[in-house]
C-alpha cells in the first residue's frame, strides 16, 4: 500500500561502514523494504558519524565493528552511553562471540554480514527500533513513577512536619492564653511573656503558611510571579527589623543599613520573603543573649550584598551543600521546629532577581548568609 507508506514518518538511519560497497548494499536493502519509508545517511568513519550525530538523532545506527579510526568496541561503548541511540552491530563471519559482547555493551541487535539478505536486514533493523522504542517508553514511565514516588514521600514528610509545626505552635498559644486567664490580671506587663510567646507562635505559623503558599504557587504556575518596581530596600529592611527587634528582645540586634539601596529595582514582596526567612532562621537558631548582625556593602558599581550574621548554633560542614534543597533540615535542627522550606524558597527568589545566596558557618560559633543582588533588575518577561 504505497499511500500508507508515504504518509508514515520516515525512519532515520545512519549506516557507519568504511566499505563503500557494503554501505550501498545496506542502503539498497532498506530502500526495498515496503514496510517503512527510510531516510538513510552514510558515514565511513567514527569521526564522520560523530559529526553527523551532533546535528541529528537517527532512529537507528547500523554500526560496523571494523572501522579505520576506532579499536574494538570503543565506538560502540561511546555511543551506548547515550540511551537515545538504537544500535545494530554488524559483525564479520565467525564473529558470533563479538556479537554477543556487542549486545552486552548496549547494542540492540546484531547482524552477521554473511547472513544478510534484504528481508532479514530490514526486519532486524525494524525490530531493533521497535524494541528500543518500547524500552525508551518503559524507562520514561519508570522514571516518572520514581519521581512520583519521591514526590509522594516528600509530600507525606512535609504534611507530617507541617502538621506538627502548626500543632505545636497552636498548643503554645493555647497554653499562653490559659496562663493569662489564670493570672486574671489586667496588668499587661505581667502578661508580657505570654503575649511574646503567642506572637512568636503566630509568627511561626504565618511563616510556614507564607512559604507553603508561595512554593505551591510557583510549582503550580511553573514560574515565579515577579513584579519588579523601584523601591527602598533600606526602608523595607528597617520595617522588617523593627518587627523582629520588638518580637525578639532577648536577642541582640546590631545593624547598619546605610549602604542599603534606596532605589532598588526588584519585587518588594519577594525580597521581604527572602530576608524574613533569613531573619527568622537567625532568631530561631540563635540562643537568647547572643547577637544577630545585619549589614550591606557594595560589591562593585553594579551590585551589592546584604549579610545576616548570627552567633547561633552553626551548621555542620557536611550539611552545607544540601542546605538550599527543598525540605532539607540540617542535623543541628533536631528538636527545633521548621519545615525546611525557607532557604529553598529564598534561593529561588534571589535567583529570580538574578542574584545569588551563599552561606558560611562554624558549629557552635555562628552562621552568615550573604545575598548578592544586582542593583538594576532585568524587566519581567
Ligand atoms: N542561621 C542558621 N543557623 C543554623 N542553622 C541554620 C540557619 N539557617 C538555616 N539553618 C539550617 O538550615 C536548615 C534549612 O533552613 P530552612 O530555613 O530552609 O528550614 P527551617 O528553618 O528548618 O524551616 P522553615 O521552612 O520553617 O524555615 C534548617 O533546618 C537548619 O538546619
Ligand atoms: Mg527557616
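Q: What amino acid sequence fits the structure above?
A:
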Amino acid at each position: 500500500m504505497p499511500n500508507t507508506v508515504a504518509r508514515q514518518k520516515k525512519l532515520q538511519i545512519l549506516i557507519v561502514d568504511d566499505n563503500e560497497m557494503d554501505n550501498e548494499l545496506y542502503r539498497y536493502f532498506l530502500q526495498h523494504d515496503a514496510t517503512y519509508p527510510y531516510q538513510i545517511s552514510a558515514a565511513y568513519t567514527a569521526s564522520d558519524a560523530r559529526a553527523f550525530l551532533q546535528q541529528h538523532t537517527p532512529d537507528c545506527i547500523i554500526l560496523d565493528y571494523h572501522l579505520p579510526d576506532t579499536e574494538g568496541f570503543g565506538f560502540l561503548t561511546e555511543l551506548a552511553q547515550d540511551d537515545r541511540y538504537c544500535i545494530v552491530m554488524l559483525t564479520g563471519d565467525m564473529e558470533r562471540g563479538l556479537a554477543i559482547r556487542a549486545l552486552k555493551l548496549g547494542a540492540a541487535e546484531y547482524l552477521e554480514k554473511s547472513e544478510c539478505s534484504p528481508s532479514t536486514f530490514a526486519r532486524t533493523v525494524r525490530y531493533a527500533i521497535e524494541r528500543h522504542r518500547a524500552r525508551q517508553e518503559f524507562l520514561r514511565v519508570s522514571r516518572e513513577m520514581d519521581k512520583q514516588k519521591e514526590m509522594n514521600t516528600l509530600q507525606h514528610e512535609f504534611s507530617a512536619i507541617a502538621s506538627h509545626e502548626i500543632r505545636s505552635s497552636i498548643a503554645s498559644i493555647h497554653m499562653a492564653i490559659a496562663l493569662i486567664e489564670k493570672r486574671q490580671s489586667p496588668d499587661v506587663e505581667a502578661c508580657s511573656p505570654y503575649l511574646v510567646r503567642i506572637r512568636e507562635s503566630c509568627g511561626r505559623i504565618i511563616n510556614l503558611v507564607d512559604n507553603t503558599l508561595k512554593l505551591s504557587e510557583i510549582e503550580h504556575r511553573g514560574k515565579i510571579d515577579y513584579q519588579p518596581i523601584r523601591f527602598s530596600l533600606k526602608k523595607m529592611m528597617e520595617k522588617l527589623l523593627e518587627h523582629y527587634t520588638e518580637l525578639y528582645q532577648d536577642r541582640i540586634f546590631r545593624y547598619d543599613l546605610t549602604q542599603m539601596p534606596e532605589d532598588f529595582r526588584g519585587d518588594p514582596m519577594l525580597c521581604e520573603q527572602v530576608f524574613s526567612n533569613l531573619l527568622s532562621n537567625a532568631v530561631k537558631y540563635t540562643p537568647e543573649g547572643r547577637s544577630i548582625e545585619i549589614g550591606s556593602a557594595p560589591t562593585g558599581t553594579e551590585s551589592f550584598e546584604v549579610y545576616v550574621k548570627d552567633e547561633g548554633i552553626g551548621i555542620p560542614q557536611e550539611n552545607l551543600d544540601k542546605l538550599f534543597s527543598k525540605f532539607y533540615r540540617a542535623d543541628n535542627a533536631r528538636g527545633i521546629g521548621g519545615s525546611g522550606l525557607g532557604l529553598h524558597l529564598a534561593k529561588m527568589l534571589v535567583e529570580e532577581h538574578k542574584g545569588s545566596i551563599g552561606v558560611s558557618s562554624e558549629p557552635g560559633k555562628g552562621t552568615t548568609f550573604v545575598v548578592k543582588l544586582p542593583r538594576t533588575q532585568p524587566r519581567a518577561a
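Q: And what stands out in the fold?
A: The pocket of magnesium ion (ligand 2) is lined by residues 277, 280-281, 338, 342 (CB under 6 Å).
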